[in-house]
Amino acid sequence: MGPQHPATHGVLRLVLTIDGEIIKKVDPDLGYIHRSIEKMCERDSYQQIVHLTDRMDYLSSNINNEAVCLAVENALQLEVPDRVKVIRTIIGELTRISSHCLWWGVMGMDVGALTTYFYGFRDRELINDIMEETCGARLTMNYNVPGGLMFDIHPNFVSRVKKFVAHFKTKIPEYDRLLTNNVIFQKRTKGVGVLSKEDAISFGASGPVGRASGYSCDVRKYHPYSALDRVTFNEALQTEGDTFARYKVRIQEFWESLSIIEQLIDNIPEGEHRVPTNAVIKLPKGEYYQKVETARGELGVYIISTGTKNPYRLKFRSPGFSNLSLLNHIAVGGKIGDLVATMATLDLVIPDIDR
Amino acid sequence: MKYGLSIITTIHDWLYSVMPEWLAGLVEMILIALVYLGIFSIAGLFLVLMERRVAAWFQLRVGPNRVGFQGLLQTMADALKLLSKELTGTEKADKFLYNLAPYFVIVTSLMALAVIPFTKEFHAFDINIGILFLIAISSIGVIGILLGGWSSNNKYALIGAMRSGVQTISYELSVGLSLLTMILLTGTLQLSEIIEVQKSGWLIVQGHIPAIIAFMIFMISGTAETNRAPFDMVEAESELGAGFHTEYSGMKFAYFFLAEFINMFIIAAIATTVFFGGWLSPFGITESIPWLGVLWFLIKTLLLVFLMMWFRWTFPRLRVDQLLTLEWKYLLPINLVNIVLMALLVWGNLIIKF
User: Fold this and answer.
1) What residues does A298 pair with on adjacent strands?
2) Range B241-278 burial, b when 16+ CB lie within 10 A, else e
3) Chain B residue with the nearest C-alpha to that of A8
4) Does A114 touch chain B (CB under 8 A)?
5) What does the alpha-carbon distance between residue A233 and residue A264 come to, in Å, rounded to a whole number?
6) Cα gap A6→A114, rounded to integer Å
7) Shortest CB distance from A187 goes to which of B60, B241, B322?
8) Cβ contact (<8 Å) for B318 and A184?
9) Along the 354 residues of chain B, how does pLDDT read in single tens digits?
10) A4, closest residue in chain B (CA to CA)
């Protein structure tokens, strides 16, 4: 299956060993979109590294940017203004919603309901418009820079986000009516691709995949960054660990993200949008680690600095890679159709796996 | 149609006056075949367009509306494009079977089209075993799909074809049994007579409860037999690329594509004929103006086609084992009980007639 296959959403190649319809072994073959991002990071300055992170998990590019910026700021002991923190959190949650919208559409498409794709994109488009107005880009944002944000928010930002939140609240029930409550969909997903809590932990699953197995692993809860320590939200948790549980976790996250945005959008503090930094950022010698919760799970940035303008070594711990590693474990024994449904709920973004 | 019929009669008389009888008959048959080919392609192209517009409507899109009035010529243009394309195939394919497969599919759907009664006079063959013929013909279509998938020598195509075989053979039982239920009511297999029976009420009304059950089963298994979503395991895009016709291009692909739509039309047409009174209209309008029958027939059929499109654009796809479970564990037993129920109904004369 792959590397050009409609269900792998990119260039993932899966070598399947099948017996008729039953899957005996899944062997992911990576490397089709490897761009040596980590190696390129060793050559680039810290401002440039932020741009590269857009190209990893392109659906949560804002959150990736944030991870690198936070790591650099922590290393420099730089305290960013409150305004930046709040805006970063709002933008991050918007990114999460937009990523989940796309996932929802594609999930439906993978199990054969083609219409969901357009519904998901309809709502995602609104977020993209907001982003375009604010930072000029729709996919690779580059909005975060070490020390703050590239520009201040657009004057329309607050009103448009509020409008979106009101709009999207009426649309999630529509999602439920169209797909979640459909008998065929539930039959296709319940009890399929079951991942136990122990396996989730030992495979390093994170994000919605881990949480669907009852493994409470939300970085936003345990290591709050930016303005996440001043909002209250529930971690979306399910215990079944099957495909349907992973689906429900993400639907629940729609609501949680909306609630986070609602809590913050009315009181964005006044202030600077950026702390001036040196044109050439040199991190003090040492090792730095920062993790954030992207739409797919835990993204870690590990920087070893020798005090020069480039990192000596930079390693990303991407959620997609760990989540892909458990595919063989949960897909064996199922049908080809199950594999597609399971893969859809792992929500793999291939450039995130192949960096 | 009266005016149209007079032309046909004139042609008929003229042919027999200038040619020996056997030649005139032959020429007439060829003419009829050509007319049906025309109907086939126009109906197919129109249904493709309808599907695209309906899909667009479901999906918050506009759909094709640029070529011709409201996009009416869009599918025509697409067909021309496919016609002008080079026919490419795989080297490893079994050439003979590979080329044969599309014709199997298209010939069977054409044959099925021939017995559909559009209206009282517009009916190529009114054979006395109409329903049996339809069921038999629709079973042959699957051979084309199997051949196509098998001879392509492609893993996706092969899996698609095998799924198709499993699916069609299973669901044929339900199609047959649900029609059998209705035949208990009509007492005839001839399509024109089935419609005559319905002059005292549509069969779905006459047979009330068991007829409604039979109709539901027929629509479910009919959708499955045409390999359409939610039963489109055969070409499940997200699993098998394009399924059995992965390796086909150009007009050969178009044959498969058109045949799928014509089969959908045929299933809807059978349902119209057997359950909804065919070309009969309320208040006997079609008695006085017979050509209106075509209109009534098409309205009813297209409504059912719309229903099938509705299925396709809202439902996710089933899994192979679930598909078979649905057929063998649910539809088949229900169907068997339903036949007994219908028999009791006919025996006890509990039919609603107007």
Assistant:
1) A293
2) bbbbbbbbebbbbbbbbbbbbbbbbbbbbbbbbbbbbb
3) B238
4) yes
5) 12
6) 13
7) B322
8) yes
9) 345 556 677 777 787 787 787 888 888 888 888 888 888 888 888 888 888 888 888 888 887 877 777 778 888 888 888 888 777 767 777 778 888 888 888 888 888 888 888 777 777 777 788 888 888 888 887 888 888 888 877 777 888 888 888 888 888 888 888 888 888 888 888 888 888 778 777 777 777 888 888 888 888 888 888 877 777 766 666 666 667 777 777 777 788 888 888 888 888 888 888 888 777 777 666 666 667 778 888 888 888 888 888 888 888 888 777 888 888 888 889 999 988 988 888 888 777 776
10) B241
Query: Is A337 within 8 Å of chain B by CB?
Result: yes
Distance from CA of A123 to the nearest CA of B (A): 12
Phi (first) and psi of residue B307, to 5 degrees: -60, -40
- Edge-first strand listing for the sheet containing A311-317: A286-293, A298-305, A311-317
**Pair A348, A12: CB distance under 8 Å:** yes
Q: Cα A49 to the chain's mean position, in Å?
A: 18
Residue in B55, B316, B320 nearest the CB of A111: B316
By CA distance, what is B310's nearest residue in A? A115
B230 contacts A112? CB cut-off 8 A: yes
- Quick one: three-class SS letters along A113-132? CCHHHHHHHHHHHHHHHHHH
Q: Which residues of B touch A118 (CB under 8 A)?
A: 59-61
Distance from CA of B110 to the nearest CA of A (A): 29
Number of Cα atoms under 13 Å in the Cβ half of residue A142? 10
Which residues between 306 and 335 in chain B have a beta carbon less than 8 angstroms from any beta carbon of chain A?
A: 313-322
Among the partner residues B60, B238, B316, nearest to A185 by beta-carbon distance: B316
Asked if B238's CB is within 8 angstroms of A109's CB, the reply is yes
Contact with chain B for residue A296, Cβ under 8 A: no
**Residue whose structure tokens are 């990192």:** A311
Q: Which two tokens stand for residue B154?
A: 């492609």
List Cβ neighbours of B90 (8 Å cut-off, separation of 6 or more): B152, B153, B154, B247
Residue ranges covered by each domain of chain A: 46-283+340-346
Q: What is the dihedral of CA B319, B323, B329, B332, to 10 degrees?
A: 170
Domain ranges of chain B: 1-84, 88-347
ipTM of the complex as predicted: 0.74
Q: Cβ of A333: how many Cβ atoms within 10 Å?
A: 10
CATH architecture of the domain covering A46-283+340-346: Orthogonal Bundle (1.10)
Cα–Cα distances (Å) from A327 to A26, A189, B231, in that order, read: 7, 15, 26
